[in-house]
């Protein structure tokens, strides 16, 4: 008997907005995502204003992730997880939701044909969207200038690191001179206003603009695949006065923000001589560690989960020192760290964890 799993999965994707409203009723649409608190972990109690459970409403619709707990899955797993069901029960729930049980044999044939057509169309649309996203990343990257340039924006970016974070870039040996750029007036896109018109989500007003440090995520071959943007106050070396002053855009998993090149002075896409690597989460920790450990290459992965995807298999890496934050104490964070360590160790290179003696992370010691 032919499995109806693929048809059910596509049917759920076609009604993803309605499905999210049913499964995550406390959430709401933000851009292309349905954003909610996690109904299983109950994180709304400790983080009432910071929901991190996100479900894409287009592209690979339903491929959800909770950035706090690390839980993730596809659209069927979304039903399993939120309703606390096993796979068989989740499929039964989905059939009921889609009305399959009430369909005649002819209607089921038509339903299957419709899902097949929609799958093909969704694949074409996803490919086109991914290409457009890559182009948008490069447009943003190309619109920023080097933080080492002699411009007011670059000077503000350098002041942010030196005065705001205590990590002067000009004192970092073998700083990767490609990584850090500054945009003089970048839209803080979280502040944009969106409306749904004719079934499509349209931007009706852009967000405010701020200077921004734009850090490039580079692939193992040196291609910029994503950017990390730290929005700055236009008049001082601190973050912009917005709720989320740090935003990422693009495909960061598997790429890294290369802070320093280590003793060889060569970027990772050109280096072959093995040496130690310090792998951390953010650029502030990265610049702090690069200042203190010039003997090592330093990469920032952008997030804890992405640390496990870093290309430590490259020949320029002999051993990996994972810089862990001291506030990764919850069961969830420890589970994620264990996962990262296992992923790194799978490449057959020595792995050790290092922690700051003070503060929540390594940069705290530079700013306290």
UniProtKB/TrEMBL annotation:
Domain (DUF7146): residue spans on this chain: 133-257
GO molecular function: DNA binding; nucleotidyltransferase activity; zinc ion binding
GO cellular component: DNA-directed RNA polymerase complex; primosome complex
SUPFAM superfamilies in the cross-refs: Zinc beta-ribbon (SSF57783)
Keywords: DNA replication, DNA-directed RNA polymerase, Nucleotidyltransferase, Primosome, Transcription, Transferase
Domain Toprim: 277-365
Protein's name according to its UniProt entry: Toprim domain-containing protein
Natural source organism: Aureimonas ureilytica
